Each structure stands twice: as C-alpha cells, then as structure tokens.
Amino acid sequence: MKFVCRTCESFMTYAEQERIGDGSLGVTFRCETCGHRFSMVTNAGETQMLNALGVALGGRTAPEQPLEMTRTTLLAESSPAGQGASPGGCPFPAMMAQSERQDSQEAAAPAWSTDAELRLERIPAFVRPMVQKEIERLARERGVTLITEEFVQEARERFGSRT
C-alpha cells in the first residue's frame, strides 16, 4: 500500500510509529516533496493482527531476497504452535497466544460461576477466547469478581452478540 500526497502528488514515506496506551498504534507518513504529514491509527485488534501476521510497517529496509516469501511461509509452517503461525500458515493461533500472554499480564481474571461457564461452552470454539476476554474485561471495568450467567447476558446485550 502506498499513500500519495494530494498537494504535490508525490509518494509519501513512512515517518514514525507510536504505541498508544490502549494497544492501538499511530503511524505517521510524510511527503518528502512538500512536507505534508498525515497519521493513521489502528485499534488494538488491528495492531494485534498486524503483529500476528508479522507485518512490518514503514516499508522495506533491505531489498527483497530471492524466494523470501517461500522461506518465510516454510518457517511459519514449521514453527511450534504458539510460536508463530500454525501448520498451514494460519496466523490466528499465534494471535490468540499473544492475546493470552497479554491477559496474564493484566489484572487477575474474575472467577466464573458454573452456569456462566456452561453458557461460555456453548459459544463456538473459534471465537470463545475472544468473547471470554471481552466479558472478563467488562467485569474488571465494573469491579465484578464473579461472572454469573446474568452478567454474561448483560454483556451479550451490551455487545449485541449471541453468547
């Protein structure tokens, strides 16, 4: 992806990036011809996905190497689960592992009642960790120490999901 300055029609170049406290990322680009600048901000989820996919912002610092994409894909496929992409190159297990590491560094997760855990188990496995994370985040925000089925229902209504 390239950005073009609307004033002088020159390609803009990467200037800097800044991590924002909530997990977002601010990226600034600059026009080398006229000096105009603009910034874009990714939300925490987009930042996490960029990291999981191994996307480097700012363009190349070295020329592309022969068969670079092939070597990168093979390395990702051969890495152990949780260390990179899983076999087949899927980035989501690595993204979830990174999310879990971040969660463990945050405040302790609230406890779940048996009824709430049973309800959580009915959520499709591929989205369950994300849903659980958001419910626990909401509980921490509200000072809830025990997540009940009623709290899960409240979260469902707030997020408009099908938990």
Question: Could you characterize what this model shows?
Answer:
- With about 160 residues, the protein is α+β, with helices and mostly antiparallel strands.
- It has a domain at about 105-163: Proto-chlorophyllide reductase 57 kD subunit B (Helicase, Ruva Protein, domain 3, Orthogonal Bundle).
- The chain has helices spanning about 45-55, 70-80, 90-105, 115-120, 130-140, 150-160, and strands at about 10-20, 25-30, 35-40, 110, 145.
- It has a three-stranded antiparallel β-sheet.
- A hairpin with a 5-residue loop joins strand 1 (about 10-20) and strand 2.
- It is elongated.
- The model is unreliable at about 80-85 (pLDDT under 50).
Average pLDDT reading: 77
Secondary-structure content class: alpha+beta
Strands in their spatial order, largest beta sheet: 1-2-3
Strand content: 15-25%
Question: Can you lay out the helices and strands and say which pair or pack?
Answer:
Layout: E1 12-19, E2 25-31, E3 37-42, H1 44-53, H2 68-78, H3 92-105, E4 111-112, H4 114-121, H5 128-142, E5 146-147, H6 149-159
Parallel strand pairs: 4-5
Antiparallel strand pairs: 1-2, 2-3
Helix pairs in contact: 1-3, 4-6
